[in-house]
Amino acid sequence: MSTIEHEADHGHDHGHEGESHALPPALVAHQQRRAIMFFILADAIFFACMLFSFFYLRALDVQGGWIPDNGSVVPAWLSWLLAGVMVLGALAHRSAEAGLSAGVKSRFQTGALAALVLLVVNIGLMFYQAHTWPIMMSEGSYASVFILMWGTQLVHVFMLLFVALGIWVRGNQGKFDNGNVVHATVAGYFWYWVTATAIISALTTFFVP
User: Is the pLDDT of residue 8 over 70?
Assistant: First the structure.
């Protein structure tokens, strides 16, 4: 056998070896779901630390440092508006995911685009909130923790924006037409988590004074 024929057979064997090591789609889907759950768990620990800081500093209130004399607070209504927009976005993504599962592409396109638009609206409202809030980080513990939580939420929303854009693009390219919607499902987990953090952050407005 010539050297060329031997190399061809060797490459052919490696091809079969690579195919034999391919993971089943169900296992890949399970690994992806598990990966996002571990990511959310780690993120939840970080978020819990911020909540602990919020309530600890509020309870401590050393020398009136939580909200100093003549200090201000951020209006609660905008935090609740942001949470409401995130809830609508999560519902829109869920509708898009259901459209994929049912094979109704028009429903997917409508839901995914609505979710994307609502994220852009949310980002715009967050920047409006930052532009109009009557606080500075140096004004007390409340202002410091609030701005830290706001910045963390903004990072999460930007991450989610890129995820939602990827789902919308891949769906319109027909990447989910084979019924494999695990990517949309995994993105949904992150959607619901970011929405939950927005709601919890809004709930802290009841404990500001």
Answer: no
For domain 40-207, the CATH class is: mainly alpha
Residue 59: which H helix or E strand, with range? helix 25-60
d(CA 204, CA 127): 20
Measure the CA–CA gap between 153 and 26, rounded to whole angstroms: 33
What's the token pair of residue 2?
A: 């010539």
pLDDT band at 19 (very low <50, low <70, confident <90, very high): very low
* pTM for this prediction: 0.83
Q: For residue 97, with 0-12 CB atoms within 10 Å meaning exposed, 13-18 middle and 19 or more buried, which class applies? A: buried
DSSP single-letter state for residue 137: G
Query: Would you tell me the crossing angle of helices 105-132 and 76-102 to the nearest 10 degrees?
Result: 170
